[in-house]
Write a sequence for this structure.
């Protein structure tokens, strides 16, 4: 990697943090408001809150309907609903906020310098607020009892549930990194790819852990319903898996060099503009 590429990266990060120019929150290119910046940030937070709200409302709502109405939705129907609502919200507000909807994704983007750290707690607050509001809405609409809990709990083994969450969260972030942060990918297909990944993950891990992949998805229902069984799994698992998925994709992002050259560089995880490669 050349010094020219690193200079481009530093300038881009500086502009992101100042709220100027173009941004790439989660790989979805947006134009950042330059004045007033607080209004622009507020718009992003509202987009995250609304997006997370409807993801939880629809995804958890279909779980409630399936329980209360004799399994009419069916398990495949639940899987498809989760994938569809995530895809729809990515296309709806991705150009505004980056469509994170997940505290673990926000933290990972910040860790890999694709998102400003000072906005992380605000994004997480918006995501958790959306989840709490959606969970409260569902409880009031359907008069849900703890027996019809629409959150996530381990089916049997805590260890199996934790491993499942780590694996599916890894896959989710690996796909997000590939389709939404790599300039060589077709960005318009990001929503479809992520939505399909959600469907597959729920099919595989739903019976084991509930297939959370998102601390906000689990915390909202847990707090509203007062059911905290194994809640730590759905905080630790997604964060570990998503961080690992982002790390691995960033490691293999540029593999045109021999491994011996990659291991000599201490900055191979840094994002580089395609124009900087020679």
């Amino acid at each position: 990697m050349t010094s020219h590429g690193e200079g481009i990266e530093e300038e881009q990060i500086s502009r992101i943090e100042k709220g100027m120019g173009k941004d790439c929150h989660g790989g979805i290119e947006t134009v950042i408001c330059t004045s007033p910046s607080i209004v622009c940030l507020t718009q992003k937070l509202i987009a995250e809150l609304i997006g997370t709200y409807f993801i939880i409302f629809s995804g958890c709502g279909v779980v409630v309907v399936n329980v209360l109405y004799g399994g009419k939705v069916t398990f495949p129907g639940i899987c498809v609903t989760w994938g569809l609502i995530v895809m729809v919200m990515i296309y709806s507000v991705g150009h505004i906020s980056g469509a994170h909807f997940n505290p673990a994704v926000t933290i990972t983007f910040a860790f890999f310098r694709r998102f400003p750290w000072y906005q992380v707690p605000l994004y997480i607050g918006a995501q958790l607020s959306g989840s709490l509001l959606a969970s409260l809405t569902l409880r009031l609409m359907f008069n849900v009892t703890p027996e019809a809990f629409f959150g996530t709990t381990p089916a049997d083994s805590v260890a199996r549930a934790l491993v499942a969450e780590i694996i599916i969260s890894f896959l989710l972030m690996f796909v997000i990194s590939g389709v939404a942060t790599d300039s060589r990918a077709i960005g318009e297909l990001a929503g479809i790819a992520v939505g399909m990944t959600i469907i597959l993950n729920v099919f595989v891990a739903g019976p084991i852990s509930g297939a959370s992949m998102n601390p906000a998805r689990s915390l909202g229902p847990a707090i509203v319903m007062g059911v905290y069984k194994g809640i730590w799994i759905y905080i630790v698992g997604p964060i570990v898996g998503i961080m690992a998925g982002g790390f691995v994709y960033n490691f293999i992002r540029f593999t045109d060099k021999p491994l011996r050259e990659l291991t000599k560089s201490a900055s191979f995880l840094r994002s580089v503009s395609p124009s900087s490669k020679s």
The chain is about 65% helix and 5% strand.
